[in-house]
Structure formats: structure tokens, C-alpha cells
Amino acid sequence: MTDAVVFDLDGVLIDSEPLWDDVRRGVVASAGRDWPADATEALQGMSTPEWAAYLTDVVGVPGPAEDVAASVIDEMVTRYRSELPLLPGAVEAVQRLARDWPLGLASSSPRRLIDAVLEAAQLTDHFRVTLSTEEVEAGKPSPAVYNEVVRRLGVDASRVVAIEDSSNGLRSAAAAGLRVIAVPNANYPPAKDALALADVVVHSLDEVTTGLVG
């Protein structure tokens, strides 16, 4: 029995991971620093303060972390305004599930980008709760963002389905006690141990039907 559904944003509804990677790499290259081999995977799921600190403290981008974050987010907004990279079936999946359940959104994107994406996609009104990891104490794989979304929805975590794609996202939702549907991103596949945490693995959002969720 399902009482609510919580979507991830990046990699589930929008194909933003390549943009995040490109923009962050650009910032690092402009600073004359090298991109660490494990940086792309490490950054997935981090909250804004966490990934900004990673770029300054680990990679060595100069300047305050807040300024680095602002430059990355400004460029992401510019990219989204140019073309919103919605994944196939994203709008339809949200509309389909919203007819039967209250929806939440648990995203590692900053609030500014969450609101921009949902407004551009005309999906804002379909979500009862939206939350950024920058608004809780830790980013994914911590369960903090899912714990808080579930609390705000007023439902029991064991009766909530999360829809996730990344290793850290899958770990976050599972740690919060949600049932998890994995929709792996082919370009950024999750680790095998993280994928094993999913209750169901599908290949596209078209497979996320009311029958599957319910």
C-alpha cells in the first residue's frame, strides 16, 4: 500500500547530470586546476554547500565556497533557460502519479533551480512538498532530505515510494526506509551495491505506472 511518492529531480526528471559536470569542470579548468578522476561520482547527491566546499577544499578552486557555488548555479540557470533538459516521460510520469498520490520532491539541486525547473515544466502544482538538500543538515547519501519530505507529507516512510537514479540517491531513500524504484541513468549508472537497494529496477519512466507504484 502506497500513501505518497517522492521523486528525485536530477537524473530522474531532468537530464542535468551532464550539465552539472560540464559547468563544474569549466569552473575548475578556469581556475587552472585538474579534474579528479573520481569527482563526477563523488559530487552526485552532495548538497550545494558540500559540493562547493569539495571544489574549493579538495580540487583547489580559489575563493569562498559561496562564490564558487553562485557562479556554478548562475551558469546552470542560464543553461536551463536556453533549453530545459527534461527526460522522456518525465512530465507524463508526474501527472500520472499525481492523480493517485500526493507527491514530494527530494533534490540535491538548490532551491533556485528546483523552482525554475518545475515552473518551466509546468509541474509546480503537482508537488505537495519540494525540498533541497541545502535545506537539511546533509546531502545524499544521508537520509535527511527524505526524512524531512516524508515528515512534511505526514505519512509513514514504509508506505512511501521513492524514484531515484544515482548511487547516493538510492542509498539516501533506502536509508530513510522508503521503498525504492530505480531508474538508472545510462550515462551515470549507479554502483551495484546501491542498485541492489532498490525494490524495483526499470529502464524508463514510462514503466513507472500506477500499478507498479501501488
Automatic annotation (TrEMBL):
One Pfam family per UniProt: Hydrolase
Classification via SUPFAM superfamilies: HAD-like (SSF56784)
Coiled-coil residues: none
Domain of life: Bacteria
Protein name: HAD family phosphatase
Organism per entry: Kribbella jiaozuonensis
